[in-house]
Write a structure and sequence with these properties.
Elements: H1 2-26, E1 54-59, H2 65-72, E2 78-84, H3 88-100, E3 107-109, H4 116-120, E4 127-130, H5 137-146, E5 150-153, H6 161-174, E6 178-180, H7 188-198, E7 205-213, H8 227-234, H9 242-251, E8 260-267, H10 272-281, E9 294-300, E10 305-311, E11 323-326, E12 329-332, E13 338-341, H11 348-351, H12 365-374, H13 378-381, H14 384-390, H15 396-410, H16 418-425, H17 427-436, E14 442-443
Parallel strand pairs: 1-2, 1-4, 2-3, 4-5, 5-6, 7-10
Antiparallel strand pairs: 7-11, 8-9, 8-14, 9-10, 11-12, 12-13
Helix pairs in contact: 5-6, 6-16, 9-16, 14-15
Length: 462
């Protein structure tokens, strides 16, 4: 009897243990990666034939497109072949700008919502630059690649998991570059900090934070057909995560030695945007989906964490946060730009006359400036002044465009790839899934489908 009782207790214990494990596993909402279609392989480190002259078609000439065209006029070896927008006046205005610079007029496409298909089909185009409203990003990007073009797509490039996988599969099938135009990766502080991280100055990065906190009240009416407000009305979650998460993922070598595993999101109720609609437009909206503030916490395969926040309605100063916590130091951009390091981590020539520096406070301004000069990222050194002169969010937009053209001209891998696009954009649909399921954890797929640790770090090819 004792023997049988022992076996019974042992059986119950094992059963309960297994049940608990199954219950724990069930607490994750799974979003598995679909099998890779036969005949295609990943595009990690993709190299294509050099293009000494890059011929560009621009699609979308509303808020962001004209600035992109103007910046490209400052880069040698670029021909602006085509301009496309639904509105004729937008196309004419940008072509007039080209003429004022003594450049040839580009081919014009306008007047129909499908007219962009004629631009992507042009035989004398190498790169399609997409700056339309969000819903047109994916169909244009996919068709451009199928038409034999590389494609650069504004942020966020994709809004759903199906669209994300469609971009990945098309890039893998066509062997064409598909890059997200994430300019914040190229801001001077972020690039310098990335170089510090890669040189080991901050030790191992264990936590990062990023955000898009930017009151859009002055800008809501500038979005064609109100597409951005409409998306916030009908969707919940972090709908604009890439500015915040991009630089953090680069510093953490995501899909280059580590990967995003799962996320959890929480949000507040919606107050600010419904109030704006009532006050400015007389609309009474009771079913506004997106909360004022959304927080998303992510854990990586190697046990690191990332916090991403979104808020486009509260009365707060602009912030992308950008914080990196390392085992040997700390970097912070908003609201105070600075670094915190122990004296032992700082080159005496950089520290100067300052003594007993500790990580309990930010470095003095003079030390910070000397440190940033020493660790200035190599890709910035030759173009920094030109970038600041040409502009685009202080110069980071120009660096982004310059690097895109440089890599295409040299036949080098781009600084960012389609898997960066996928990981950063996936926060949009996955945060909504988490919120709609009482903030349950949601798995983040391995968009490389098994190759996330084949590369060992982020590299900017030269």
């Amino acid at each position: 009897m004792k023997h049988n009782w022992f076996l019974f207790v042992f059986f119950v214990a094992i059963t309960l243990s297994w049940s608990c494990k199954k219950e724990a596993l069930a607490q994750f909402i799974e979003t598995p990666a679909p099998p890779r279609p036969a005949g295609q392989t990943d595009v990690l480190g993709l190299r294509c034939d050099p293009l000494p002259t890059v011929r560009v078609a621009f699609i979308g000439l509303g808020m962001r497109g004209p600035g992109a065209v103007e910046r490209m006029t400052h880069i040698d070896g670029v021909e602006i072949v085509a301009l496309c927008d639904l509105l004729e006046e937008n196309v004419k205005k940008v072509n007039k700008m080209l003429e004022s610079k003594g450049l040839p007029k580009a081919k014009e496409f306008y007047g129909d919502e499908e007219i962009w298909r004629q631009a992507t089909a042009l035989p004398d185009v190498d790169l399609v630059y997409v700056a339309t409203d969000w819903k047109h990003h994916v169909p244009i990007g996919i068709q451009a690649m199928k038409d034999g073009k590389h494609v650069a797509i504004e942020v966020p490039s994709a809004l759903t998991m199906d669209d994300i996988w469609a971009l990945i599969n098309t890039s893998e099938q066509t062997r064409k570059h598909c890059i997200q135009l994430e300019n914040c990766v190229y801001d001077f502080f972020e690039l310098t900090t990335l170089n510090m991280v890669q040189q080991g100055l901050l030790g191992e990065i264990i936590h990062g934070e990023g955000a898009y906190i930017h009151g859009l009240q002055p800008y809501w009416d500038q979005y064609w057909n109100d597409w951005r407000m409409d998306y916030n009305r009908t969707h919940r979650g972090d709908v604009y995560p890439t500015h915040g998460i991009g630089p953090v993922c680069m510093a953490m070598n995501i899909h280059r030695g580590d990967k995003l595993n799962f996320l959890v999101s929480v949000d507040t109720k919606a107050i600010g945007n419904p109030a704006f609609l009532k006050e400015k437009r007389g609309e009474e909206v009771t079913d506004f989906r997106n909360g004022d503030h959304t927080c998303t916490l992510i854990r990586t395969e190697k046990g690191k964490s990332i916090l991403i926040e979104h808020n486009v309605t509260s009365p707060r100063p602009y912030s992308r946060m950008f914080q990196l916590t390392g085992t040997a130091g700390f970097a912070n951009k908003y609201p105070v730009s600075g670094y915190a390091l122990d004296q032992s981590e700082i080159d005496p020539e950089v520290a100067g006359d300052y003594q007993n520096l500790t990580a309990h406070s930010f470095l003095p301004q003079e030390v910070k400036e000397a440190l940033m000069e020493k660790y200035k990222h190599p890709i910035v050194k030759d173009i920094e002044e030109k970038a600041k002169t040409v502009g685009g969010h202080g110069g980071m937009d120009f660096i982004m465009d310059y690097r895109l053209i440089y890599c295409l001209q040299k036949g080098l891998p781009l600084d960012m790839d389609v898997y960066d696009l996928a990981e950063w954009c996936s926060i949009i649909p996955l945060s909504e899934i988490s919120l709609d399921n009482n903030s349950m954890p949601v798995r983040i797929p391995d968009f490389t489908r098994g190759a996330w640790n084949r590369l060992d770090k982020v590299t900017f090819a030269e």
